[in-house]
Structures are given as C-alpha cells and as structure tokens.
Amino acid sequence: MSEEQKTTEKFQFKAEVKKLLDILVHSLYTSREIFLRELISNASDALDKLRFESNKGEKINDAELPYEIKIEYDSKEKILRVKDTGIGMNKWEVISNLGTIAKSGSEEFLKNIQGAQGDANNIIGRFGVGFYSVFMVAKEVVVRSKSYKEGAVAVEWKSDGLGDYEIREVTEELKRGTEIEIHLKDDSTEFAEKYRLEGIVKKHSNFINYPIYIDSERMNTVQAIWREPKSNIKHEQYVEFYKFLTYETDEPMDIIHRSIDAPIQFNALLFIPAKTYDYFWYNKENYGLDLYVRRVMIQHKNKDLLPEYLSFVKGVVDSEDLPLNISRETLQDNSIFMKIAQSVTNQVLNYLIDKAKNEPEKYAAFWKEHGKIFKMGYMDFVNMDKYMELLRFNSSKLNSKDDLTSLADYASRLKEGQKEIYYITGASREALETDPHLEIFKAKDVEVLYFFEPVDEFIFTSLRKYKDYEFKSVDAADFKTLDKFKDVETKEENKEKLSKDDEKHFDSLLAKMKTVLGDRVVEVRESKRLKGSPSCLVSADEGFSSQMHKILKMTNQETGPQKKVFEVNKDNNLIRNLIEIFKKSPDDEYIKNTTEQLYEGALLLEGLLEDPHNLVNRMNKILEETSALYKNSK
Ligand code: ADP
Ligand code: MG
Questions:
Q1: What is the pTM for the complete model shown?
Q2: CA 179 / ligand 2 centre spacing (Å)
Q3: Which domains does the chain have, with CATH numbers?
Q4: Radius of gyration of the chain measured on its C-alpha atoms
Q5: What is the pLDDT of residues 282-305, one digit of tens each?
C-alpha cells in the first residue's frame, strides 16, 4: 500500500447536499455559467477573510504572496482551475465546509427552489448557489487547499459529485490558498475557452475587489465605485454594480449614492430593487448591506446598518472612521458604527420623503412593491415622524383602488373639529363601499381610510395616533362626535317621522329583538349611523374592531368574548313593516325569524359568521314565502 492510499479517507455527502447536487446537475442548463461566479466569489471571500486576519495582526503563511485570483484553462485536457491566495482550509474545515451545506447561499437556494415549482433556471441566477454549482459542469472536482495558519498541512478533496468524496493530506509543496481543479463534462468544454471565460468574468465578477487573471491577463478593474464622486459614475456603471451585487437582472428602482463627511465619514451606495420577491418572506436572512472599512470588506450582509423594515435596500457602506480590525461581534457596541447606522437609515428615509414629495407617482410605485415590508417599521420610535409621513393608504375620498393618501393629506381634509382618523378593514374597495358602517361617514362626508390587509389595523392600534388625531376603527366610532357634522347627503330625507306612539312600539320591538338574540349581543339599540341598511353590528368596547379580534384570535391571544351591539335603523322600510307586524302580533314567528336573519346577515358582513347553514335555510324559506305572495299578486 502506497503512502497516499493510506492517508486517503472516504466520506458520504450529507443528505441535503445530495439533494442540492441532484437539482443542480439534473434540472439546470441555461444558468450553468454562474458556477464561475460562485467560485470567484468564494475566492474573494477567502481573500477578505485573510485580509481580516492579517489586519488583526495574525501571522500568515506565505506572507509575500499577493492577494489575487487566477483562472487557468486547458482546452485540450478539458480542465479549468480557479486559484486564490486566500485564507485556505485545513482538513477539518474542508470536511465541514464542502461536505455539508454552508449556512448562506446553498441553503437559501434549496429552500427557495423547492417553493418555486419548476422554473429553476429563472431563480438560480438570483442566488449564491455556492460551491456545489461547479458540478453543473464538472465530472470531477479536485480541491487543494492550504490554510494561512503557520504549520498548516495542505489537503486535497476529490469528488465526482455523486455521493461521496475523498480527502487526503498533501505532502507535495503547496502555497497558501485554494485551488479548484475542474474536470469538465463533455457538454461543458466551452468553459475551457478563453473568450467564454472572459465574458463570464466581465458579466458577473467585474466588481470583485481583487485582481482576477485569466492566463496572466488582468480581467477586472478593481474599483470601489461607491468611493468615487457621483459625477464620475455613469448610470450604466451603477446598474452593472447593482446586478453584480444582487444577482438581479432588472435595473434598480432607485440609486442612492451618498458621501458623508461629518460628524463621521462614510460612503454609501444603496439601491432599491424594482421588485420585491416573494422569497423575501421565507428568506428573511437574505438581507443587509455590505460593510467596508477603507475598501476592505468587513462584513457581508450586515443586518444592523438598516432596520429590518428597510431590508429591501441593497448596497454597500464604507467608512474611514472605523478601525480595520473591528470584529463583527462587537460592531453593534461600537458608537461610531451606531452613528453610521443611524445616518444611513436617515439617508434612506429622507430620500423616500423627497421622492414622495417630488415624484408622488413614482413613490406610489415604490409603495406597491415595498410598502408591505416598510409598514413593519411601526416600532421605530426614533424615526416615527418620518415613518408616519411615508405611510400610504387607500381611502373613501379617493377615486380608485389604486390611489393613495398620506396621513398628512387626510389631516388636511379633516372636518372642522374632527379629532379622529377613521379606518375600516375589508377584502376590497368594492366590499367596503357597501359596508353599512360607512353609511354615516358618507352622509357626513367624513373620510375613512381603507385597509385591505389585517396587519394595517394591528399597526394602527399600536401607533394610536398621528399628531393629535386618534386612530379609530369605524365600528368603534362615537356617534356623538360624528353627529356634530352636518349631513351632506341623506338617502331617506323624506322619510316621514314615526309617531310618538310608534316610537314606543319601536322601543318595544328592540326589547323583543334583544330577547330573541339573548346573550349573543350586549344591547339592541336604535342606530344613528345607518342611512340605508336595516341593521348592523358595532363594537361595544372601544378600540377593538372585529378585524382586530380576528387577528388576535389567529395569533391565539385571548380577547374574551366579543361584545357586540346590534343596531337597528328605524327609517328602513323593512323595520317600518316589522313595527306594524309587531303592533298587531308581538310574538309573531316572523319577527323572531327576521331578527335572526338580520343578525346573522350582519355577522356575515363582519366576517364573523361561523356557520352559514341557518342563514341560507331561512333565506330560502323567506324566498319561498315571498314567491308565493308574488305569484298570487300577478
Ligand atoms: P458560501 O460561500 O455561501 O458560504 P459555498 O458553498 O460557496 O457557500 O462555500 C462553502 C464554504 O466553503 C465557504 O463558506 C467557505 O468556508 C468554504 N470555501 C469555499 N471556497 C473556498 C475558498 N476558495 N477558500 C476558502 N474557503 C472556501
Ligand atoms: Mg460561496
């Protein structure tokens, strides 16, 4: 047995690696070239890590080696090599980094590709799929690596990407860094052609911070464009950098390039993507800005430079004022870093405020894409004024479901003496426009914000007010306050007033209805808010609307039984008829059935009816009876 065989060990890939390999090898064709982007990105990470250790004052193997990435190809042998002089790996690191799925790229990719149904090619480019993507083009991969640590032993890792890999210690002379040797598949020999490699590097890796050579020819112009004056940068360069950074294919919606000198120096180049992708929601880790100190990458996707509700923003921040050897763990405690973070957040918020002011249509487009995430900023007490200024909603005063109003605009339309900002939640604008709760608001011409997402109400409950105006759900509105405003539109203007006597009968009818409904409602009373509908349900306890109860119930929070008041409109024709029937025969079944029907109908509108069977059966019965009457009248 030779020395080499003795020290060779075989390992199985972990199950999730096999799954990833299977997807990469079998379902992806058009995005294959991104394997090179992934290898170069790993090489660049390895160089970043080395620079970081070196800045900390660690001793480094082969200290004289330049920081660089080399690509070599051999078209005859169909071999491609990607080499770096970065941090390298020892045996244990090779096993844990290349034998399992590393935290970031690949894992995200796996999660998302499983959710994405089919179109793998389309989303693969958006992710850092990681090292394993090399098996899209390789029939065998040999990794040789030597750690930067003094006394490190070089290792070799070899696999065909099918099920296992082997590792041996390398006795030959090897310098610090990592070499990935790729034996190309027969259908992938294009990746041993210079023009092809050049094209890929230019397209995907042009902004890598270290020189990349293809056969000793320098490919990229290392350029930290965020440190250049704005006037030096062309729009296309920004876009190219954005695509490099995010793996997006569309142009960004916004580019925010800032150079701040006081009190703390930093450069920021930030982008707002044109689209928000659904994967954000099950991929919440995939955000953050890249943090540089004097052009040196300190942390990829730092999550503390911006609050989570601005996590749709992509980009880089680079400061002269942070120490180069700052550790990622202590960043949050560093007061300079905290000031930079505050300032970056301010830059973004101010940018959005300007955009909202100067280009309201473009701001509306921004809101459609990113508003959902932005709204989650209701806990940012430091920036509360700006946050509120940027909120947008649909409302009863707007012409269509796509129009938006700010709270400031709502406030400018307040009625004299109006102290509340009203809102209602519903499935759609159409549904809300026929909601009985809004009848009084229409009659009084008082604006109501329309919420289409249950979370809006949750946010408003937490915000409580805008300036001095309290947020109030329409079904918790105090009628006395509304009554102060004059009617502008009365549907039932000429309705004859009830006689004194009939008023009494109406009161008795309400008492009768309460007996029918029992404990299901806390009260049955005359409605002042209805201007057309016969009846509706309103909250007895201020503040919590039906929607809110539903949210709390969904999140398993105890809200206690909902206290509802059943309100009846005495000017409605149906109710007028009921009064007449009641006068003649107070215990008539018809009154009981109609009360039940009206109550369940109101529940249905609130989204609170749990079982529609009784309602439908009763309705069919009523239709049967009215059809008989109708037939006989013909
Ligand atoms: P990610 O880069 O998202 O962590 P990868 O699958 O691309 O995932 O790489 C897995 C891990 O393998 C890396 O995190 C790194 O630790 C290690 N690695 C890959 N390539 C290199 C390299 N050229 N030099 C040093 N370590 C590397
Ligand atoms: Mg990687």
A1: 0.78
A2: 14
A3: 3-218 (3.30.565.10), 225-358 (3.30.230.80), 500-633 (1.20.120.790)
A4: 34
A5: 456 778 999 998 888 888 889 999
